[in-house]
Amino acid sequence: MIRYLVSNSFEICSVLKPGSSSSQLLERVRQEIMKLNHDNILIICSGTNDLAINKTTLAFQNISNMVTKNNHTNIIPVNIPYRYDMTNTNTVNDSIEKFNKRLEKLTNISPHASFLKTEQNRKLYTRHALHYNRLGKHTCFIK
What 3-state DSSP class applies to 125? Predict the structure, then answer.
């Protein structure tokens, strides 16, 4: 999906911070984002760990601030995938659904932002149900 947004010649830079909250991740990349311009695309995939500690409001605020304050570059927030690995899956997934809808609305009113909605099918996840399996990766990211 993203390959349709970029030319054949591009460079990828990623910042990974496993186990971090959205606050920690976005603070780490704040200076780097200032170097971006309208030719760049920033993909934000964050919020799952905030959800695990019931901080979805904070996660939304962090991502919302990132989108609204950085209109000098293109921003693509990715939805939070459903959690199939928890005992109270329905409650958690309801929170995820609400969060993702708010995030999609935010990107609809921001001309420099787009929302990337990934597949939420349980069959596309590993047995422990938090990460995509091989089929899920192929289905969601190689189109």
Answer: strand
Q: What is the DSSP letter of 48?
A: H
Question: 136: helix, coil or strand?
Answer: helix
pTM of the model: 0.80
Number of residues in the chain: 143
Q: What is the largest CA-CA distance in the chain?
A: 45
Burial of 82 by CB count in 10 Å (0-12 exposed, 13-18 middle, 19+ buried)? buried
> Which domains can be identified in the chain, with CATH numbers?
2-141 (3.40.50.1110)
> How many CA atoms, within 13 angstroms, populate the side-chain half-sphere of residue 44?
34
**Please, what are the averages of pLDDT over each run of 10 residues along the chain (143 residues)?**
61 77 85 88 84 78 91 90 74 86 94 88 78 78 54
**What token pair was written down for 77?**
């927030």
Q: Phi and psi at residue 132, in whole multiples of 5°?
A: -70, 145
First-to-last alpha carbon distance for the chain, in angstroms, is: 6
